[in-house]
Design brief:
The complex is a heterodimer.
Chain A: E1 3-12, E2 15-25, E3 30-34, H1 41-49, E4 56-61, E5 64-65, E6 76-79, H2 91-101, H3 106-119, H4 135-147, E7 153-157, H5 165-180, E8 186-191, H6 194-200, E9 203-208, E10 211-216, H7 218-223, H8 228-234, E11 240-247, E12 250-253, E13 258-260, E14 271-277, E15 282-285, E16 292-302, E17 305-312, E18 315-322, E19 332-337, E20 343-345, E21 351-353
Parallel strand pairs in A: 3-8, 3-9, 6-7, 7-8
Antiparallel strand pairs in A: 1-2, 1-4, 4-5, 9-10, 11-12, 11-14, 12-13, 14-20, 15-19, 16-17, 16-19, 17-18, 20-21
Helix pairs in contact in A: 2-3, 2-4, 3-4
Chain B: H1 2-30, H2 34-38, H3 54-59, H4 70-100, H5 110-119, H6 125-139, H7 145-169, H8 173-181, H9 186-197, H10 199-215, H11 218-223, H12 231-237, H13 245-266
Helix pairs in contact in B: 1-13, 4-7, 4-10, 5-7, 7-10, 8-9, 10-13
The chains are: A alpha+beta, B mainly alpha.
Chain lengths: 360, 280
C-alpha cells in the first residue's frame, strides 16, 4: 500500500528536470519536498501526476504500475502555486466539477461540496465567481476542490507562495488542520521554507537540481544535514560557511582569530575544514580576542528579526538577532560565534560533525 | 480633459456621419418614387418626397419585373453560413491543437503550420481560381453549393485558425491540466473547460468568417454559372443602365441587412474579461 517511484528521470533538450528520483510514500502521511526555486519540486509533482512524461523509471501505486496511466485516470489532485480555478464557474461549480466526473450526484454531491466549502470557510461565497474573491479565498477554493475529491494522491505545489505574509501564516495553520483529516491520501507538499516543512512535521525530501539529496524527519534533516548543500537549503537565513583550521585546542579562522575547540569536534584531526554556523548562533559583540571584526554589508528586517550580512576577515557571516535594530550598511561590527553550535564539513562538503542535540 | 472629450466626440460624430451617409443615402433612395430621383436631388422622406415601396417590390419580382433576389439570398445564406460553420469547427479544433501540442514534421513546427494557414490568404484569389476551377470541375462540383462551400472553407480557415490560436494561447494551460487531473480526458477538457472560455474569440472569428464569406464576389463569379448565384453576383447582374436607382438601392440594403442583424445578434457574446480569476 504505497506510492512508489523508482529511478525517475526526466530531461528535455539537455535540461535535467529529475535525476534518478526514487521514493516510497505511504497513504495517510505528508511528504514535504523542500528545495529552492528550480530544484525540481514542480517537476516531481508533474511527473507523479503524469503531466510530465518520464524518460525512464517506474511509478506504481498499491502494486499497480501507473507509469503509463494517463493523467485523467491517475486520480491525483493538485493545488498550484498560482490560484487555478475555472473562471467561468462559481465557487460551488468549481468544487463540483471533479466530483461530477467521479460520479457523485444529488444530495451526496451537495453534502460533499458543502462540507468542504465549510471547512475552508467559503460556504457564504458559494455562488460567487473566483474573480470576485481575494487571493487567499481563491486559493481556498482550489484547496477545497482538491480535498473534496478524496483522491489517492494529493499534491500541493507551494500553495502559500503567492499570498502575503499574514495570510500565509493564517492559511498555514488552517492547512494543517485540513490535512490532518485526510487519512487516505498520499499528501505531497512542496515548499521553499523550512518553517513550513517543520510545521507540517512530516518527512522532508530535500531536492536540488532534480535530485533528492536527503530525506528524513525535519529535525534529522535540520540538525544533521548530510552535506553543506543541504545545510544551506534548509537554513533560512542561510548558514554561514567559513573556512578555518583546527589547531590543538583551537579553531583558527582565516583572519587569525582563535575560538575554543568545542567538545563535539574532539574527534576531528588537525587541518582545514569548512565550518557552518547558523545565523542565530552568531551575535554582534564588542571587540574582543575571540570575536571577528567586520563591516555590515546588508541589513534585512523581516517580521520581528534583523538579519545582518557581515563581511569579516573569515568570510561573509550572516547574523540573526531578535527584534528590530538600527544597523546600517558600512557600519563596523564585531561578531561572536558559538563554537558549540558549529557544523564541520570536509573538503567535499560532507558533514563530519554536527552540534550535539540539546546544546542550545 | 474636457477638450479631449469634446475633440473625441466631434471626431466620432464626424466619422459616424462619414460611414453612415452612403448607407443612409441608399436607404432613402430605395423608398423614392422615380420622379424624386430623376428631377434633382431630394433628401427627406415625407418632406421632400412621398416614400413608396416601389423599389422594394421590384427586387422581389412584385409588379411584373424579372428581378427576384430571394433565391440569391438563400444561396448566400447556405454558402456563407455553411462555410463559416465548418471553418469555425475545423479551425477551432486545429487552433487548439496548435496551441497546446507541439508538432514536429521534419523542420516544420507549430508556428510554421500557423503560417502555412495564414499564407493561404497572401495569394490573391485570382491565382487560386484556376486550380479551384479545375478541381471543382473534376469533382463535378462546379456551380453547386457544396463546391462554393469547400472553396470558402479554404479562405475562412486561415482567419479562424489565426485568431483562435492567439486566443487559446491566452488561456492558461494550467486550466487544461487541472481538468485532466480532475478526470476529464483531453477532448473533454477542451470541450467543457476551454471552449466555453473562448466564446468572445469564437464570436469574433465567426463574425469575420461570415462577413468575408458573405461579401465574397470573386469565387462565386468564377465557379458558378447561374444555378448558385449569390447576392453579390445577383446585384452586379442588375445592369445599372436599365435598372432604376431605387431598385439598386433596395437591393444593396437588402444585401447588407442580414449581416447587420447577425452582427447585432452576436454582439452580446463579445464580453470582455471572461478570463479573469483563472490564474492570479
Amino acid at each position: 500500500m504505497a506510492l512508489i517511484g523508482q529511478n525517475l528521470n526526466v530531461a528535455v533538450d539537455d535540461v535535467t528536470y529529475l535525476e534518478d528520483v526514487s521514493f516510497t510514500f505511504e497513504p495517510g502521511r505528508i511528504y514535504v519536498l523542500m528545495g529552492r526555486t528550480g530544484a525540481g519540486k514542480t517537476s516531481f509533482m508533474r511527473a507523479v501526476s503524469g503531466l510530465l512524461p518520464l524518460d525512464s523509471g517506474t511509478l506504481s501505486f498499491n502494486d499497480t504500475d501507473i507509469t503509463h496511466t494517463p493523467v485523467w485516470k491517475r486520480d491525483c489532485a493538485m493545488v498550484y502555486q498560482q490560484f487555478i480555478n475555472y473562471p467561468n464557474k462559481t465557487v460551488r461549480q468549481n468544487v463540483e466539477f471533479p466530483l461530477k466526473k467521479a460520479g457523485l450526484t444529488g444530495a451526496e454531491l451537495t453534502a460533499r461540496v458543502d462540507s468542504y466549502l465549510g471547512k475552508v470557510g467559503l460556504l457564504d461565497y458559494a455562488s460567487r465567481k473566483p474573480s470576485q474573491l481575494s487571493g487567499g479565498q481563491q486559493q481556498r477554493v482550489a484547496l477545497a476542490r482538491s480535498l473534496a475529491r478524496h483522491s489517492r494522491i494529493l499534491m500541493l505545489d507551494e500553495p502559500l507562495m503567492n499570498l502575503d505574509f499574514k495570510l500565509r501564516e493564517q492559511l498555514r495553520e488552517e492547512f494543517l488542520e485540513l490535512f490532518r483529516g485526510e487519512n487516505e491520501s498520499v499528501t505531497i507538499y512542496a515548499t521553499t521554507e523550512i518553517t513550513e516543512a517543520m510545521m507540517l512535521g512530516a518527512e522532508i525530501l530535500v531536492m536540488h537540481e532534480g535530485k533528492i539529496l536527503q530525506s528524513g524527519k525535519p529535525d534529522e534533516v535540520f540538525e544533521r544535514p548530510k552535506d553543506k548543500l543541504v545545510a544551506q537549503i534548509v537554513n533560512d537565513p542561510p548558514m554561514s560557511i567559513i573556512e578555518a583550521k583546527i589547531e590543538g585546542s583551537n579553531i583558527v579562522l582565516a583572519s587569525g582569530t582563535k575560538l575554543p575547540r568545542p567538545a563535539h569536534f574532539s574527534s576531528l584531526g588537525e587541518g582545514s575544514y569548512e565550518f557552518g554556523i547558523r545565523a542565530i548562533d552568531v551575535e554582534p559583540a564588542s571587540d574582543a580576542p575571540d570575536t571577528e571584526s567586520g563591516k555590515v554589508g546588508f541589513v534585512e528586517v523581516s517580521g520581528s528579526e534583523t538579519v545582518l550580512y557581515v563581511h569579516t576577515g573569515a568570510g561573509e557571516v550572516v547574523v540573526q538577532i531578535e527584534g528590530i535594530h538600527d544597523y546600517h550598511a558600512g557600519q563596523k561590527l564585531a561578531v561572536k560565534f558559538r563554537p558549540e553550535r558549529m557544523f564541520a564539513f570536509d573538503g567535499n562538503g560532507q558533514l563530519l560533525e554536527s552540534p550535539k542535540l540539546g546544546v542550545k | 480633459m474636457v477638450i479631449k472629450r469634446v475633440l473625441s466626440t466631434v471626431f466620432i460624430t464626424f466619422w459616424s456621419v462619414f460611414v453612415l451617409m452612403p448607407i443612409l443615402w441608399a436607404l432613402v433612395t430605395s423608398f423614392k418614387p422615380p420622379e424624386a430621383v430623376d428631377f434633382g436631388a431630394t433628401f427627406l422622406p415625407f418632406v421632400d418626397f412621398t416614400p413608396t415601396l416601389l423599389g422594394w417590390e421590384s427586387i422581389f419580382g412584385v409588379g411584373g419585373g424579372n428581378i427576384n433576389l430571394v433565391p440569391a439570398l438563400f444561396n448566400s445564406i447556405i454558402v456563407t453560413f455553411g462555410g463559416a460553420a465548418i471553418s469555425l469547427v475545423l479551425g477551432t479544433v486545429s487552433a487548439y491543437g496548435l496551441s497546446r501540442f507541439a508538432y514536429k514534421l521534419g523542420f516544420i513546427r507549430n508556428n510554421d503550420i500557423v503560417f502555412f494557414f495564414v499564407s493561404q490568404r497572401i495569394m490573391p484569389p485570382i491565382v487560386l481560381s484556376f486550380p479551384f476551377f479545375l478541381m471543382l470541375r473534376d469533382l463535378g462540383l462546379l456551380d453547386t453549393h457544396l463546391g462554393l462551400i469547400l472553396v470558402s472553407i479554404g479562405g475562412l480557415m486561415p482567419i479562424v485558425v489565426w485568431l483562435m490560436v492567439d486566443f487559446f494561447n491566452g488561456i492558461p494551460r494550467e486550466l487544461d491540466e487541472m481538468a485532466m487531473l480532475e478526470g476529464y480526458s483531453p477532448f473533454e477538457a477542451f470541450l467543457r473547460v476551454i471552449l466555453p472560455l473562448t466564446a468572445p474569440g469564437l464570436t469574433v472569428a465567426g463574425m469575420f468568417a461570415v462577413i468575408f464569406g458573405w461579401n465574397d464576389f470573386f469565387y462565386p463569379l468564377v465557379l458558378t454559372f447561374g444555378q448558385v448565384v449569390t447576392l453579390p453576383l445577383a446585384i452586379v447582374a442588375l445592369n445599372a443602365t436599365i435598372t432604376p436607382y431605387w431598385t439598386l438601392s433596395a437591393a444593396a440594403i437588402f444585401a447588407i441587412l442580414p449581416l447587420i442583424i447577425f452582427a447585432f445578434a452576436m454582439e452580446r457574446f463579445l464580453s470582455k474579461g471572461s478570463l479573469s480569476g483563472a490564474v492570479r
